[in-house]
């Protein structure tokens, strides 16, 4: 039963950060996240980040849509074609820009929740 068990979200995230050659400070700043929140995520000790936080991390790491979907999946989330926020995020993940401030401007324009800031 557990043979199919994949690596947990926090381990997968740290591997992505390493592959991008980034450090923690670069990531949480680009994601517009608080250092304490990032520490909770990094520790992996029972903290379950929200979907918007994970998407902010994906933007900070400049992940592809496929990489973002894999990261979301490890935390139990998915992008929905029936959700405006998710459709906007999918567009930016596919086409860019990969800048959290520019994405937040569009989210704000449509009255949707913003990325980061938690």
Task: Describe the 3D structure.
With 118 residues, this protein is mostly helical. The chain has one domain: lambda repressor-like DNA-binding domains (434 Repressor (Amino-terminal Domain)). It contains seven helices and no strands. Helix 2 crosses helix 4 (51-60) and helix 4 runs antiparallel to helix 5 (65-74). The protein is globular and about 40 Å long. It starts with 8 loop residues before the first helix and ends in a 9-residue tail after the last helix. 24% of the residues are buried.
Structure in a nutshell:
The protein has helices spanning 9-19, 24-30, 35-43, 51-60, 65-74, 84-95, 100-109. With 118 residues, the chain is an all-alpha fold. The protein has a single domain (2-109), classed as 434 Repressor (Amino-terminal Domain) (Orthogonal Bundle).
Report the C-alpha radius of gyration, rounded. 14 Å
CATH architecture: Orthogonal Bundle
Named CATH topology: 434 Repressor (Amino-terminal Domain)
Largest sheet: none
Number of strands: 0
Instruction: Give the structural class.
Output: mainly alpha
Uncertain segments are none
Q: What separation lies between the terminal Cα atoms? A: 36 Å
CATH class: Mainly Alpha
Strand content: under 5%
Mean pLDDT, all residues: 91
The arrangement of helices and strands along the chain is HHHHHHH
CATH superfamily: lambda repressor-like DNA-binding domains
Estimate percent helicity: 55-70%
Structural domain tally: 1
> What is the count of helical runs?
7
Q: Which geometry do the CA atoms define?
A: globular
